[in-house]
Design goal:
The chain is an alpha/beta fold. The chain has a single domain (26-154, 188-278), classed as SGNH hydrolase (Rossmann fold, 3-Layer(aba) Sandwich). Helices cover 48% and strands 15% of the residues. It has eleven helices and nine strands. The strands form three sheets. Strands 2-1-5-6-9 form a five-stranded parallel sheet, with helices on both faces. The protein has a two-stranded antiparallel sheet with strand order 3-4. Strand 3 and strand 4 (85-89) form a beta hairpin. Helix 3 packs across helix 10 (238-253) and helix 10 (238-253) crosses helix 11. The longest helix has 23 residues, at 2-24. The chain is globular.
Amino acid sequence: MKKILLTILVLILISCNAENKKSTEELNVLFIGNSLTFYHEMPLMVQKMLNETNPNIKIHQSTFPGMFLDWHLNKTILTQNEESINVRNKKEGEITETERKLSERKWDIIILQEGTIRVIIPESRNLVVDSSIKKFKKIVNNPNCKFILFNTWASKAEYPLEKCYPGRLIDKSLESSKKYCSESIENLEQHNDVINQAYQKLADNNNILKSNNGNLFYEIRIKHPEIELFDDSFHPSVYGSFLNACEFYQILSNEKAIDLKYNGEIEPEVANLLKKIAE
């Protein structure tokens, strides 16, 4: 009987140790994007949230102003400041800053953020953004890496709205001077739907997850217009960045943001409202 009890106790201890090891094993997360990601140090907000509940999850970033996903793989940065960058096509044998970052460690989760207009113009989405996501999935050094698509939001705009790029700014396979456009958008609700549907197509095509940031921004704008989510027509304010951080905290931790003590640098009552909306 004593041997049986001892065996059971050993098995319990082994199980507990394995579970503890699993919960404390370091998990590396990389944000790849531009100012929509790094405004007000959003990735750092996510890290401070995680430090309360999941300090084993470590946040990193490769984010530059005005940087598109394909630029992260194809452009060499010549100069940069907080507002802009100067780039050129990378030469044979060169690697970009983001490629260097990707090679630094075994990434467990990579969060990809693209410019919204590029996503809602079908030709740009299909020829450039989709292919960039596939390249990231191919070159990452961890076959078990999970990818998450950062679903951005509707900018402040006057309607009707239609976004267009000439073919030369999209892909060399297109007519250079011809304009390629999004569908005509009549109001904020449609704007939000068009963006969400475009991201969903990308997520489905690449068998990856997407976030819910667009819907969170929409809900705040409809139900709580007194909260200013923007610094300009499209960059997030400190409130918008905090809302984004809540969304990614919940995705990465599987915990509720409303249970966090962290409020960043915003009013506690507003922070709690944003946490509840994120939930």
